[in-house]
Automatic annotation (TrEMBL):
Keyword Transmembrane listed: yes
Residues annotated as transmembrane: 6-24, 53-72, 78-98, 110-132
Listed name of the protein: DUF4181 domain-containing protein
Natural source organism: Sporosarcina soli
Organism superkingdom: Bacteria
Signal peptide (from-to): none
Keyword Transmembrane applies: yes
Keywords: Membrane, Transmembrane, Transmembrane helix
Amino acid sequence: MFWIRFGLIVIIVFVLISIVKFLLRNLLKIEKVKKEFFSFNHFNESHRKIDKGLRTISTITLLALTCVLLFFYPNFIYLFLIAVIAFTVLDYMVRAFFEWKYTQYPKQAILTLTEMGLILLAIIIVVEFKLLGAY
């Protein structure tokens, strides 16, 4: 039952993000930029370096946090979710900054920040209303 709820929530969030992006593109006259699926889409060398460093630091931090929380503080496992959310927000902020400063389509940053906000809102709603069950 958990996976059915999880899949349904993911689909709803994906559809909501797509609709909001479509509406924002039309309202703000933002051009659609072709991006490859599952690629990093770095805008310049500095973005590549910062993104690689951020991913490395987040991986090491999350692995260490997992070990510490599982072995020493099992009651505080929710801190892992907070760390994942923080690193995700940081990643979106870096992407939005480089879209705004270093691309020929600076309005794309609006879409990136909107997507980040919707994902955060979805996580907050799921956790607050316990839509995935008791945890």
